[in-house]
């Protein structure tokens, strides 16, 4: 993953090897944090890394 500050949902989905729909589902459920900028949804790079780091910890 490159060190971009913000990712569009399709970019985040590609980096996570998930579908766009799954990323939106994660956002809606609050598992993955996102921000809105003028009606456009973006995910911070640090939030993507935090999400990946949290995987498997609840198991």
Describe the structure.
The chain is of the alpha+beta class and 59 residues long. It contains three helices and three strands. Helix 1 (9-16) packs across helix 2 (20-29). The mean pLDDT is 93.
Quick gist of this model?
The protein is built from three helices and three strands; from the N terminus they run βααββα.
Give short descriptive properties of this protein:
47% helix, Multidrug-efflux Transporter Regulator, Chain: A, Domain 2, globular, alpha+beta, three-stranded antiparallel beta sheet
Helix-strand layout with pairing:
Elements: E1 6-8, H1 9-16, H2 20-29, E2 35-37, E3 40-44, H3 45-54
Antiparallel strand pairs: 1-3, 2-3
Helix pairs in contact: 1-2
Q: What's the Cα radius of gyration?
A: 11 Å
The strand line-up of the biggest sheet is 1-3-2
Computed structural class? alpha+beta
- Biggest sheet overview: 3 strands, antiparallel
Extended strand count: 3
H and E string? EHHEEH
């Amino acid at each position: 993953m490159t060190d971009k500050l913000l990712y569009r949902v399709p970019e985040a989905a590609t980096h996570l090897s998930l579908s766009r729909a799954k990323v939106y589902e994660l956002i809606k459920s609050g598992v993955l944090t996102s921000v809105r900028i003028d009606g456009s949804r973006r995910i911070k790079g640090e939030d993507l890394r935090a999400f990946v780091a949290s995987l498997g910890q609840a198991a």
